[in-house]
Amino acid sequence: MGTGKTDRDEWIVKCPKCGRIRESCRHVSREDVRRIVRLLDAGVEVYQADEERESSEPHLHEPVRPVAQLVTPRYTMDDLVLAESTKEGLLDALAELRHKGLMYRRWGLKKVVKKTKGLSLLFAGPPGTGKTMAAEAIASELGRPMHVVNYAQLENMWVGETEKNIEQVFRAAFEAGAVLFFDEADAVFQRRGVMATPWMNRDVNVLLSQMENYAGVVILATNLARVMDRALDRRIDIAVEFPLPDAPLRRKIFERLVPSEAPLAKIDFDALAAKYQLSGGSILNVVRQAMRSSLRRGKRHRITMEDFTRAAERELKKSALLSTDHLQEAPRRERIGGYA
């Protein structure tokens, strides 16, 4: 928010609830922002003495949420329909985690790696390809809970608080023996550089340091691996790609996601899998939409091949709709006269 002066400085206030704001939001009023800017321009230093620290009052309309959410895993490895290369990466991770004592003590890896080494995994691939399910399956196979990081609570507008939140996330997960899961990790592990703000670079430094010294299991999932910091390369132990499924896998996913109780007519799942290149998440949307179409005709009607075909076409159109810029004006066309 500007101060009204002719200087080039511009203040940006970062709300801990909904991100950075320029003037106001539903948590911080415009007058609150102006008061902060006036005090800072006057040279006022704001701090809180350790001996007089008081707990801040949470917003009455929005309870304070934990930095990481505890999730009980719902899936196992048997629930996953994945490409062989993807499944091999997950099995490699489980092999080390189950036989860590053997590797480090009897096989002598502890002599090479002096500190207790955890395991860091990167799951990269398009949306709906099973990255979150795979993370839950890893935790389930190990018999551990999963801590899912809450980004809105992780970042804090006060200097030094974000670093404390990051340390708290890793410490709490380790003490609980939980698998620490960063979904959409590109949001926090962004590439550092001159274009990034100083506090963003500092936060990534803290994250990388915590990962390097973490003795537990941490999984990063992303749809945009190319924007993540290059220093993650040596800190990631196993990188697993989650590609879009091919036709045979799509056929298996259809079989897995269509309940046996569903009143089906004759459905050619081979034809559906061959024609429509969809992720597992999109196939689930197709199954649900086919059920809706059938229910519109009445409860006694069967789900037909036409219901599935129309649902698949709608799912493909959804991607085109999401990529459309509805704010951009259509190009203006005018008749141009020729030369005489």
Helicity level: 40-55%
Order of helices and strands: EEHEHHHEHEHHEHEEHHHH
Number of domains: 3
The CATH superfamily of the largest domain is identified as P-loop containing nucleotide triphosphate hydrolases
Determine the N-to-C terminus distance: 57 Å
- Shape estimate: flat
Class by helix and strand content? alpha/beta
Strand content: 5-15%
Examine the coordinates and then state which fold CATH places here, giving the name of the CATH topology of the largest domain: Rossmann fold
DSSP helical segment count: 12
Q: Give me the count of strands.
A: 8
| Known CATH architecture of the largest domain | 3-Layer(aba) Sandwich
How would you summarize what this structure contains?
By secondary structure, this protein is an alpha/beta fold. The chain has 12 helices and 8 strands.
Would you give an account of this structure?
With 340 residues, this protein is of the alpha/beta class. The protein folds into three domains: 47 residues, no CATH class; 174 residues, Rossmann fold, CATH 3.40.50.300; 75 residues, Helicase, Ruva Protein, domain 3. It contains twelve helices and eight strands. It has a six-stranded mixed beta sheet, with helices on both faces. A two-stranded antiparallel sheet has the order 1-2. Helix 2 runs parallel beside helix 5, helix 9 crosses helix 10 and helix 9 packs across helix 11. The N terminus is likely disordered.
